[in-house]
Each structure stands twice: as structure tokens, then as C-alpha cells.
Amino acid sequence: MKKFQLGEFEEIVMLITGVLYNEAYGVSIKKAIEEKLSRSVSMGALHTALGRLEAKGYVKSHEGERTEERAGRPKKYFQVTNLGKKAMEYNRDTRNELWNAIPKTAFGLKYNSSL
Amino acid sequence: MKRSTAPPGIFQRFFCWFCRPKLRDAIEGDLLELYQERVRLKGKRRADLLFIIDVLLLLRPGIIRSVNPPTFPHQNNYAMLKNHFKSGWRRLIRNKGYAAINICGLAIGMTVAIFIGLWIYDELSYNHYHKNHETIAQLWSGETDPNTAAVNGGYSMQYPVAGVLRQDYPQYFKRVLLSGWIGSNTLATENNKFNRTGLFIEPGVAEMLSLKMLEGSYHSLNDPNSIILSLSTAIALYGNGDAINKTIRIDNKVDAKVTGVYQDIPRNNRFSEVQFFSPFALQIQYRPSIRERVSDWDNRAFNVYVQLQPGVSSDAASAVLKELYIKNVPPDLKKNVEKYKSFVQAVPMDTWWLYSEFIAGKPATGRIVFVWLFGIIGIFVLLLACINFINLSTARSEKRAREVGVRKALGSGKSQLVMQFLSESYLVVFLGFLVSAALVFFLTGWFNRLADKDVSLPITQPLFWLMALAFILFTGLAAGLYPAFILSSFQPVKVLKGVLKTGRLAALPRRVLVAVQFTVSVLLILGTVVVYRQIMFARDRPAGFDKSNLITISTRDPAYKEKQDIIKEELLRTGVVASMSSSNVPLTFISNVTGGYDWRGRKPGFDAEFHSVKITNDFGKTFGWQFVAGRDFSTDFARDTTDAVVINEAAAKYMGMKEPVGEKLIDIDGETGAVKKTWTIIGVIKDMVIGSPYDPAMQTIFYYNNGSPGQFHIRLNPDAGPARAVAAIQSVFEKIVPSALFQYKFVDEQYAAKFSQEMRIGKLAAIFAILSIFISCLGLSGLASYIAGQRSREIAIRKVLGASVPRLWHMLSADFMITVFVSCLIALPAGYLLMNNWLQKFQYRTAIPLWLLVTTALMAMLITLLTVSFQSVKAAMLNPVKSLRAE
Fold first, then answer.
1. Contact call for residues B700 and B589 (beta carbons, < 8 A)
2. Whole-complex ipTM
């Protein structure tokens, strides 16, 4: 049974939210993902993921400033919570464990045979 | 900053509309920020496009708001609903007449719908008693007439077919059972004799039909001299049903031991008439001639039932069977198979009943037509009842308008008012359902007798209750939805001020609905009348012989052999019998069609076929033949018994003979064309109705042959009285052939049975038609009384000013009359086209005369006039002082 439910895209969103720290809101997260991972993200996918993460308690949000280019709509800033941090760590640890568990020969042999 | 760069407004608004309020501001802000940036970098057009794509991609479950955001979430509506029902109930009590009309109309409509539903369910579940009904099929062989390209065929198969199927196609057929025909046999125990319907079929039938064995097992028929009985037969034969291991003599020829008893097969199954099963081997024992057919590919006298392997469709099996003949028949028959394109197909059990009629060699139509017909009638009758409710509710809207205004002013939303009116309609529908359930309960017996069915409300099945619930929900919605929306859409300011849309336009939807009601009713009535006329037309068709006082007796029992002359002599001596004769086949259906004939003037290549009947002396006298030309068989002419033939008018026409008497009819060998026998035509009789009374008479030849009398025909002395005559005849039969069971049938009763099916359908349709017009009139009467009441002050003032009663009557009735007249204008041409189309399928058919259409219209108008006048005259006669003082 999974201790923490965290999908691949959700994990990326959380990582980026962490990277951006105090500057993580919709547009900035979207741009960062597109820049760093060179994949396009739709607004819908992003906000759905953020909504889910907030519901799980992995991120929290607060309203920010209202700028003119946003026609007076407030920014919604996101922050990783402690629970969210644990979930990310858990994810990373399980990955690492699995990486370590791979026998050295597994990839080595394959590499040899293809030669 | 100048805001000339705004995103496409409609998409922005669309987003704001569908987005959850909580997320809206933040996401909209993000969208706008992105948009501004894109305008700067990529230009407005591209930014617009990306904006639109973004908005569309936002259409996903996490973002879209719920359909109806509750103003007060988690509100408890219980008290409000309770209040709706309570106030609805009080309103019904206050307006008893109006409530009665609504509830009665709906109850009648629902009762009709329930009965039709039960009828359809019964029809659709025909043969479903057998667990394997989906895989059971019967073989059917057909051939194409090279002259006309018509495909003819039937269920009779050749003996060797079953063996070939078993041997060569086991991957298609799990079970192949050769059998005889379902027929009547005499079962004799030590003390008693009974006539019972049975089927001789190869073992395995009990398992194939999943019979419920009360005694014995599925292997009980493995012994050739065995018989299994239905429970009711076992009880009839042995009283207590203790039949096992008893010996029964079948048809006075062979003995069989009872090895099993099964639960009677319920009525809506093909095999329900079968009261016993016996092995086919037993039939071979007592009819040794069957042995000659074991490898005869030319004689079709058997039935073959098959059970398909799991996963094999009947179409797949039929595709394989198409080649059966060409692969297996001996070389001398190959030419015929090729010429007639003979083929075999497997007709699945599920089509036996509903698709019993074949078109182009495929089961295409049959009872399914009536299933559709009644289904449509049921929906229409229910619809008529719903229209009553709709009309009466909207007509009374003025009374409710103030209430709606006050409720709205006090803060009711439209949806709450819709709720209220819907719950009122559900109250009425539910009461209607209770009444109709009671009606169905009490009328089931009557309906079963009328429809010749065995239906009942399946109250033990949960599915039935679900259906009933769905039925109530549907009817409630159909009846209540429109009034609910009309009533709840009144604007409070207007209705409270007293301004309500009235006049001609407001009543238009109502008039349209009344027109729909009468269109449907007139259609149903016209249809019923035409069906009746067609049945009567066929029934009054000259039968070509005298049906009354004629009885017929089957003589399958071998004890009758050689006894015909003695019986005849004795019968004539009793004085109750006018004459007696016999024929080889019964004359109530066409059973013996033969080919291979030639005559002077036959077109080459014309393969003639005749229904041929072997008869004995006095046949013409017994049946009351009417001669068009020539004479009857006579003992004065010796050659009459050897080479004379009497034909019917249809045969004369068929052969194209103007003066048939004296012409020769030559019996030739179909293969070689060699002359086998030459008949001389001595007489032509008027056509006798032997087959379907809706078909033209089949060309028939009668010739003398006393070798194989299969059927005695006895003309009773009309003075004797049938009861006394039958008793006297019975005593003669019991004296001369004591071993045989005396069983007789009156020919006129058998003749009437040809119409029973149609009569039954016609009667049902007539009842539904009458009920539909009754429901329509009920609604009309309610509407008329309401409108008269509404205009009571107007009527009073008109009266004071000198209007006469007839004038007022005219004023109140004219609107309705015009509406009904319009619906007649729609219904009659449509009905004429429909029914004319229906009549085309009968060869022998009546026409639809103009006066019938006119009479139907006049009847509809008259009924309307009576219904409306009752109310309008009452209103017009009222004392003006009373109605003026009322307020």
C-alpha cells in the first residue's frame, strides 16, 4: 500500500513550487516547468494538479498582489507544506532504494550484448 | 496602459461561467497575465488562439463547477416536500370533480398500458421456458421456383438429413433430433382411453428442452418402448399421478412403459400443447413404412430439431446447411436440387412465434407486428391520459396564478415551484396507479379470456416493482412537466396586478393537444373498423359448401380399416345421418399438394401443382357441392371410380380452360414426362374454402379412391338435433369399432377457428379504441365544464341582454367542434393510407369506402358534441341572477 499518493506530474509541480519558493504562482510554475523540463503544460492540467495537491494537504496557498496586467485579479501563491515535503522525500527515497537494488550486471550485460 | 488588447470576450465569459467560483479569480488572472505576455511576444492573433485553447483545456472535472450551486447547501427539503403533498391533497379534496376526472383518466390509461405491457411481455417471452431457447433451432428446407423466383418451403425434412448432420457437422450441432409431427394420439391404460397430443422424437429432447422431471430423468426416453407424460396427463390417466412403470397402449398399436413424468410446459411455449414425449424409434415400430425412408432423399415427412454448439449462431449454421443437399443427395436428385436451388436453414426457436411468416425464405414477420401495434397503442392511450392532465392543469392556471405570484413574492425560486407542481402531479399519478393496480388485479381473468393468455402481475419479481416505479416516474413527468413549467413561469408583478395572458393564443397549446387526442382516437377507431370489416368480409365469403350440421372424424386407428361400409350402412339406418363420405385428408387445411400434371394447352415449362384429395362415394352430397358445370361422381358410371376427376373453379382458371368438362388431365412422371394416368374432368364445382380464408382458393382436384380413408365426414339430419345425432353416431361407432376412441369435430366450429386469432386481436383493438375515445371525452368534458364556469358571468350578461340558449350553446361548443373537425381532417387521410397499406397483404380483401370515412368523422363529431353540449347547455340554462350575484 502506498503511504503517499503522488503522481509523476504532481511531483514535478511540487518540485518546481519548491524551487520557486516565494514566487510560485500559476504562470511562474507553468513557465518554469516549460523551461526546465521542456514540456508544454496547459493551464487546465496545472490548476487541476494544484487543486488536487491542495486537497491532499501537500501545498497551501495564499492570495497575493493584484497587478494591472492581471486586470486586478489576485495572484495565488503556493507553498509546499511539511506533509508535502515528507511525501516528496518518501518518493525520492523509494526511487533511490529501487535504483540501488538493481544488480550492476543488469544494465552492464545489456550494454555488452548490444555491442 | 491602454487596454486595447483584450482576449476574446466570449471565451473569457465562458470560462467565468463554468469555473468554480473559488478558483475563478486566480486562474483568470493567470490567463490574462499569460495573454498580455503572449500579445507582446507573439502578436494578438496567436495570443487569442492560445487563450482559446487554454480555456478549452481548462474544461475538466477539477475545474468545472457543479451544475446547480446550492444557495444554501445541505438544505433539508423534507418539510417542504411534505407540505407540497399536503397542500396538493387538500386541493384534490376541494375540487372533487376535477380530481376524479384526472385520476380516472390516468387510471384507465395506465390500466391499458399495464395490460398491453403484460401482453407484450408474454409475447416476447414466448418459448423462454426452455433454458436453451437461444440455441435451439428447427431445420427448414426451401426451394426457389424457377418460374416465379419465389422461395417456398417448410419444416418438413428428409429422414437422412439428421444422420448427415450428426456425422459431418458435430462442430456446429450439439444435438440433432429427428422427430415426427406434433399430433393427436390415443393413449389407452387398462381401464381408460384418452386422446392426447404427443411428439415422437429421438432421446435427448428432455434435456434439450430442460423439462422439469418430477419422476425419472433426462435419460428416461433411452429405451425405445418408453413414454414420458406431463403431470396433468399422468393425473388424467391414473388419477393420483402414480404413473411410473405403468404400460400404455398408443393408438391401439404399440405398448410403451411410462418412465418419467415432467412438469407441464407453461402455455406460452410451442411445446406446451405436447402432453407426452415418446422415442422416435417407437413410431418406427408402429409405422414400419418409415423404415423405407431411412435413406430416401426425396420424401419430406419429418422434423429435425437441433441444438447449436455454444458460440455458433443460427446464421453460421444456416450458411453451412445451404450446401447440405448438393453435397449429399444421390446423383439422380442432383438435377432437381440445382434447378430449384434447394437449401436448408436452421430457424432459431426465438423466431418461431414472433416471426412465423417467411418472406423470401427468411423468417420476417408475424406476431411481432401485433407487438409493435399494441405497443404503440399502449403508449398513445397513456399519452391521451397525460394530455387530459396537462390540459386541465393549464386551463386552471388562472386560479393558481395568484398563488404563484404570492409564493414568488415571498421568495420561492422557479425550481421550487416546479418541484411543487411536479409533486402535485405525482400525487395524482400515484393515486391513478393505485386505482389501475386494483383494476388490473380484478380484470386479469377477463383479459386472459379475451386475449387467450395466461398473464398475471409478476408481483414476486423485484424487476416488476422497478418497472412499476419507472412507469410512475415516466407518467408523472409526462403529465406534470409542461404544466409545472408553465405555471411556475408566471411573473409575480403581472399576475398580482391581475394581468394574465388570455384570449385565443393562450388556449392554442391546449387546442393542439385536444386535436392530438382526437386524431389518435379517430385513427384507432378507423383502424379497428377496417380490421373488423376485413374479418367479416372473409367470414362472409362463400365457403363453397354447407358448413352446418357436418361433423368430421379422424380414422387413424387401424381398427377402422375395412369398416367404412358397415359404419355407413349402420349410420344411415339410425335416421339421424343424412349422408356420409370420406376423404384421405382433412378438409380444414391444405395438406396434400402434388405436382406432375399435363393437359391440352399447357404452356411448356409450366410446372403445375394441385391440391389433390381422394374421396369416396357421396362426397359431393355430404358437403353440398355446388356445380358450375358438369356433374358429380355417380355410381351409374363405372369409369367414375377409375379415371374421373372433379375440379374447382380455381383449377379451371389455373389451367386456362373455358370448357373444362370432358377435357383430359394427365398425370405425368415429373422426371421423365412419361404418362402415368389420364383423368377425364367430369365436373367443375364452386371453390371450397379449405386453406386460409384470406387467400384465393387453391386449384384442387378430387378423385375417387377408397383405399385410404383418413377422415370420415358425416352430414347430420338437420331435424335430428346435434346432441341426439352425436349420441346415436357414438353408439354405432362403439358397436363396430369398440377399440377406437370416438372423437368428432363440427366443421363449422373448425371453420370459425380460422378467424379466432384475428377476432381476438380485433376485439382487443376495439376495446382500446373505445377506451381512448372515452379518455379523450373525459378530458374534453372537464375542459368544457371549466371554461363554461369561467365564462359564467359573461354568459349571464349575454343572457340578460337577450342571447338565446341555442346561441350560447353554439358559442360555447363551436371552438371544440372546429378542433375535432381539424383532427378528423388529419386522422382520416392518414388512417386511410395506413389501413389501405395493411389490407394489401391480403389477397382476398375488402375496400375502404368513402362513406366509412365520413361516418367515422360524423361519429367523432357527434360524440364531441354530446360531451361538450352537456356542459355548455347546463351553463347556458343557468339563471343569470344566480351567477351574477355570486360575487
1. no
2. 0.83
Size of interface A-B (CB pairs under 8 A): 75
Collapse the DSSP code of B191 into the 3-class scheme (helix H, G, I; strand E, B; otherwise coil) and give the result. coil
pLDDT tens figures, B335-365: 888 888 889 999 999 999 899 888 888 888 8
**Residue of B725, B683, B701 lying closest to B548 (CA atoms):** B725
| A42 to B54: CB separation less than 8 angstroms, yes or no | yes
Sole residue written with cell 486562474: B27
CA A13 – CA A53 distance, rounded (Å): 9
pLDDT of residue B792: 82
pLDDT at B226 over 50: yes
Q: Is A3 helix (H, G, I), strand (E, B) or coil?
A: coil
Instruction: Give, for B365, the enclosing helix (H) or strand (E).
Output: strand B362-365
Q: Which of B687, B688, B721 is nearest to B549 (CA)?
A: B721
Chain A interface disruption, residue of B25, B51, B55, most A CBs within 10 A = B25
What is the DSSP code (8-state) at residue B198? E
Spell out the domains of chain A, with CATH numbers in brackets.
8-113 (1.10.10.10)
Which one of A63, A73, A75, A78 makes the best mutation probe of the B interface by having the most chain B beta carbons within 10 Å?
A: A73
CA distances from B845 to B485, B648, B758 (A): 50, 21, 14
Query: Around Cβ B379, how many Cβ atoms within 10 Å?
Result: 13
> How close is the nearest chain B Cα to the Cα of A105, in Å?
45
The half-sphere exposure of A26 on its side-chain side, counting CA atoms within 13 A, is: 28
Residue A109: partners with Cβ closer than 8 Å, 6 or more residues away: none
User: What Rg value do the Cα atoms of chain A yield, rounded?
Assistant: 18
Answer yes or no: are the C-beta atoms of B777 and B863 closer than 8 Å.
yes
Can you read off the three cell numbers belonging to residue B533? Answer: 370489416
Between CA A71 and CA A9 the distance in angstroms is 30
